[in-house]
Amino acid sequence: MVLDDKRVRIITGHYGSGKTEFAVNYVTQLRKQTEQKVAIADLDIVNVYFRSREKKKELEEQGIMVIASSLEGSGVDVPAVSGAMTMPVTNKEFQYVVDLGGNDVGTLVLGRMKPLLDPAETEFFMVVNTYRPNTSTPEGVIEQMENLEYASGLKVTGFINNTNLVRETTAQCLAEGDAILREVTKRTGVPVKYVSYVEELLTEELPEGLAGELFPMKFNMRKTWM
Amino acid sequence: MAKVLMKGNEAVGKAAIEAGCRYFFGYPITPQSEVPEYLSDELPKVGGTFVQAESEVAAINMVYGAAAAGARVLTSSSSPGIALKQEGIGYISNAGLPAVVINMMRGGPGLGTIQPGQADYNMAVKGGSNGDYHNVVLAPASVQEAVDMVMEAFDIADMYGTPVIVLADGLIGQMMEPVEFNYVPREGIPAKTWALTGKGKGERHNIKNLVIDPDDCEDWNHEHFEVYEKIEANEQAWEEYLLDDAEYAFVSYGTASRVVRTAIGYLRAEGFKVGMLRPKTLWPFPQKGFDKWNDQIKKYLDVEMSMGQMVEDVAYACNDKNKVVFHGRTGGNVPTVDEVVAFGKEVMGGGK
User: Fold this and answer.
1) CA B318 to CA A203: how far, in whole Å?
2) Do B143 and B8 contact (CB within 8 A), yes or no?
3) What class is the A2-217 domain?
4) Could you give the ipTM of this predicted complex?
5) Which residues on chain A are in Cβ contact (under 8 Å) with B332?
6) Which of A45, B225, B246, B267 has the smallest number of Cβ neighbours within 10 A?
7) Cβ contacts (< 8 Å) between A136 and chain B: which residues?
């Protein structure tokens, strides 16, 4: 249950890991599981397309507060973030999801929030797709993890196995990602928290014994023709 | 090579390296900045050279120089940056040199928007520089096709001695898709015996642009056009999608064609006999494809992310301007599937 995770969930990963799709699905699940206030912050200052703020209207309709750039508009190519990003950290009435920008540069935004973060109530999830060239081996994942930790000053508390080839995803993909991440867990002690996949793409049975809680998702960011 | 998931902008960078390109000169601009970002990391690893030039104008002239020296060379940008490069593209064309230019188009004109567009059709296909010339223009509709076309672009450029433009858009650049890289060079690519590699004890080579005498300059133009004729004969490429029984055909390329393909699924489900003729080369325009279907098709439905820049080429290719109808979005907007379905019904009958 996503509600069992610590109150402030920071979701990161190299761009292309599927971080935003996971974050949007995660916050939607979270909304269903609690009566508390729920907020998502889109702190992506790296990508300019496929950001969670594109789903602002749909998320707000579900009763989720969306914090994005202080500058409105999908075409604003400015690395601006909203000062409101710290509010759900300090206001403990909120369950909070932070969709951080791609790779170590993106995590620099956290500097603003970090003095306020209490490690006891903060998750730092790293989304991994082992079909991405930079995270295709245990060494690659660990290097990316260390870069993210160095830039953010936070320790990764769990991996999300989001291994996929978009519309060509098979159950085997998740098993391959699982094997690589198990090795990473062995070397670093960081567990796989969820194994996420888009439900409509997987018609076959999932392999048994995957590390992490199963997390079925729906496409939010990808249109039918993508 | 196994499939990997890559962003279009990274994938075209890797495709260039796989095709033997070792030189990139460019300048960042959204939505293609991952191309220089990727190549700045990867080119040095394979002994190549990456230069972030002081401007797009400088970059394209570095491309001119590297091409003259016989290198496989790439530059990339997005719409306003490509507009800046036009002078250099004309010079490279006149000198008859091979080079590859990637344009991840965004909404225009001028600085426009960072969201995707297809309104550089005329600049690429009709020639945005001065003088009589053509560039080969390839139009990918997926990340895999962008990869394949970048590789092919280097071969075509070397084959005929011409710049080749890969005309994609911000969405192709920004989206992630599974790709694989299988570069098999074409046969018959001529050796670059003309390259400026230092005379030594060999023959003097000369790459030039100025042709003072008008008769000489005209002859030179005619020589270029003999090459263009060969390209028109050999390089037209298009996809035929569900045309066999079609009475109507969409004409669409790149990202817009993906929306159209999905819309065709809905229209077919309602019984409409409709398919798509998708140009993969915009110059040369696939006249041969149209010749094949013109008698059967009642109307061509042109869908673009522009105000209709391809319409005249479709009208020319079907030799009947009354057969061509247009629907487009522009300024960074992508047509929706619903919109294209409604447009189809309006044209084919059964619209409400």
Assistant:
1) 44
2) yes
3) alpha beta
4) 0.88
5) 75
6) B225
7) 4
